[in-house]
Amino acid sequence: MALTGELFIGRRRTSTAQRFQAIDPARGEALLPAFSAAGTAELETACALAEAAFDSYRSRPPQRRAEFLEAIAEQILAQGEDLLARAHLETALPLARLTGERARTVGQLRLFAEELRAGEWLGLRVDSALAQRAPAPRADIRLRKIACGPVAVFGASNFPLAFSVAGGDSAAALAAGCPIVVKGHPAHPGTSEWVARAIVAAAAETDMPAGVFSLLNGPDTALGAALVADARIRAVAFTGSRAGGLALMKIAAERPEPIPVYAEMSSINPVVLLPAALAGRGASLAREFVASLTLGVGQFCTNPGLVLALGGEGLQSFIEAAGAALEAVSPAVMLTEGIQRNYVRGVERMGTEGAELLAQSSAGDQNCARAALFSVTAESLVHRPRLAEETFGPASLIVRCRTVRELRETLERLEGQLTATLQMDAPDQPLAQELLATLERKAGRIVVNSWPTGVEVCHAMVHGGPFPATADGRSTSVGTLAIERFLRPVCYQGFADALLPPELRADELPHWPHRFDGERRLGRAE
Ligand code: NAP
């Protein structure tokens, strides 16, 4: 089945006169077909349908929504090679990577289905009535969490499957009971169309309301800005640039009724090489570091963009080994011409800001990135804070510290991060302990003896962190806890059983984990 370039507004497909095309980043050629760009009318219809679907969708039993998520996963898999081939063409990401990313996408949809059935996310609590309490009786008081409303999801350029149309943000919002209006990333509209077809088919198969999903495409920022400003949208999920995230936060905050924006924006993911680890296994750390830095052409938000260590022989050997490994890296095509241009500018900025270029991989063809390794002293970094800004791609900066104090102070000056990593051996334990409090304040995830790239989708994952890593460091965009972003607690006081929502009624409550008069009860969820 060929791509049509249509928009998906609820279950209806539609075309518009304004068109745009995806560009093959490896060849710089426009790809067929041309895709319809959504205008005001399509945005209006999508938001109206999402609003109309909200109560009906959120009141579907969790088991039914779980079946919907599982059906999306099945439909994505059923598209087979067509989906992967188009994603490869639009992103230049290798097929093996895309196959893994599809598995992750399907896996996280299934994980949220399991989470829905387990029921902890409902947050059920009961404080039973105290009719005889003096001086005043207490009514029966119950709590559950409900979906917050229609969510605008921005597809990310660097994860065309796992953080795009049916990616982690969509899975979390749909699990919570929120209809979604997706603003597809203009770099991969064909991939988006394939995935949209999967969602629409799954919605029909599991009898979900029409407005549970819409996909709006468009090649400029006006569409996304209007979507965030629409009064029917109740939350925003975004992964992309700091400038983009900040622009959306501003629009959301200036609405008559402001809404939360869960934006994942920029992080340089500091890695601290502690002395014993550096002395004992510096060469292998260097190779592992370069592999992490250049994975996916460095286009990961968890890319290790900053390395800190105490100066000395150990660090010198690390630098030599890392430089040699980096120079051997083959040039590779970046996701878009814009991202490649930003990367080249970022590398130039590191030079003009006074960082010393230690090593660089060879130049490539169209849209290729040359991996680059720089170095600076901790003292210089104090006066050149721009060196600690994200350069999205395979570039990293090694910071040479003279003392432990200088190392700690450098960490303290960093902005909020998605991750912070410690490479350590047993003798490093006291220093690791000393740095931990600072790292906890800076990062959403602290990694010991592995590398920050490769984010596990699981229950205990935090892919978040203080600003500017994310707009709201209290949440995560990966893992089952991500559902919390789209929920809101509601308290029911003095309700007769028949009027309560199903999960809080006497017959259903025992099936779900809950707290009853403060006591934790496990529930018997099917
Ligand atoms: P982007 O420019 O932030 O765009 C992401 C999405 O947000 C697109 O759909 C874009 O719409 C929309 N958008 C951006 N600015 C907007 C605004 N002012 N108002 C409304 N919508 C807006 O990110 P990108 O295209 O993926 O890559 C550009 C740069 O972002 C990269 O060079 C890199 O620096 C950074 N990036 C960072 C991460 C990370 O994880 N930290 C991930 C990806 C990218 P349109 O495309 O329609 O304009």
Outline:
By secondary structure, the protein is of the alpha/beta class. It contains 14 helices and 25 strands. The protein has a seven-stranded mixed β-sheet with strand order 2-1-11-10-9-12-13, sandwiched between helices. Strands 17-19-20-15-14-21-22 form a seven-stranded mixed β-sheet, with helices on both faces.
Could you name the key traits of this structure?
7-stranded mixed sheet; binds NADP nicotinamide-adenine-dinucleotide phosphate; Aldehyde Dehydrogenase, Chain A, domain 2; 14 helices; 2 domains; Aldehyde Dehydrogenase, Chain A, domain 1; 526 residues; alpha/beta; single chain; globular
Give the second-level CATH assignment, the architecture of the largest domain.
Answer: 3-Layer(aba) Sandwich
| DSSP, total strands | 25
Could you tell me the strand content as a percent range?
Answer: 15-25%
Distance between the termini: 38 Å
CATH topology description of the largest domain: Aldehyde Dehydrogenase, Chain A, domain 1
Oligomer: single chain
The major pleated sheet works out as: 7 strands, mixed
Principal-axes shape call: globular
- The low-pLDDT segments are none
Going by helix content, strand content and strand pairing, the class is: alpha/beta
CATH homologous superfamily label of the largest domain: Aldehyde Dehydrogenase, Chain A, domain 1
Mean pLDDT: 97
